[in-house]
Write a structure and sequence with these properties.
Elements: H1 3-103, H2 109-130, H3 137-160, H4 172-205
Length: 206
């Protein structure tokens, strides 16, 4: 091997080593850039995780506050409903009979008054508890059922103790029996119409 070839070989080896060093330098620089990017991404993820934790805690607090408000609102609704029921009971048991007695109105009007006052009272109470604006069929159904039962419970003792005497040609037993059948039919319809409504709604949705 000549001296010139030997020098060329050494130069080639030197160039290869230089390229190797340059490649190692580039690789190290790329690794450094990757590390910096990963650190930046990690910091962003940590910040986002902290933000999500804060939002989760905030959402939990808001949920707890909402549950507390709803519970307080329900308690308030029940208290108001009990007050309304108490007022309705006083009207049915004391005020209406007292007015009819003092004014000398025929005792038969007691049933009409009890029915009307109870009907509208129960309808208002159920509408208040449901929170709906218009009256729905369920509220009206409850009001009709309760008002008829109240009238029935007032009618039976008055006929049983002969405080009210039926008109000529009819017997108290006959009136009570017919009214009992009516109350039974109303109660059966009350409990049977609800499943039918649910079934119709289910069929319409399908």
């Amino acid at each position: 091997m000549t001296v010139e070839e030997k020098n060329d070989l050494e130069n080639f080896v030197h160039e290869l080593q230089q390229e190797k060093l340059n490649l190692e330098k580039d690789i190290n620089q790329l690794n450094l850039v990757k590390i910096q990017k990963l650190e930046t991404i990690n910091e962003e993820l940590e910040k986002r995780s902290d933000w999500m934790d804060k939002e989760r805690i905030k959402a939990i607090k808001e949920r707890d506050n909402l549950v507390r408000k709803v519970r307080h609102s329900n308690e308030k609704n029940w208290k108001n409903a009990l007050k309304m029921i108490s007022v309705l009971g006083v009207l049915d048991l004391a005020v209406i009979p007292l007015l009819i007695t003092l004014l000398g109105i025929p005792l038969q009007w007691l049933f009409v008054s009890l029915g009307l006052v109870t009907f509208f009272g129960i309808m208002l109470i159920t509408n208040y508890m449901s929170g709906t604006s218009p009256f729905n069929t369920g509220e009206i159904r409850k009001a009709i059922t309760v008002s008829l039962i109240i009238v029935y419970l007032a009618l039976v003792p008055l006929f049983a103790f002969e405080i009210i005497e039926p008109s000529s040609g009819t017997s108290a037993q006959h009136i009570v029996n017919n009214f009992t059948w009516l109350i039974g039919a109303v109660i059966v319809l009350y409990f049977s119409t609800r499943p039918i409504e649910e079934y119709i709604k289910k069929v319409n949705k399908e």
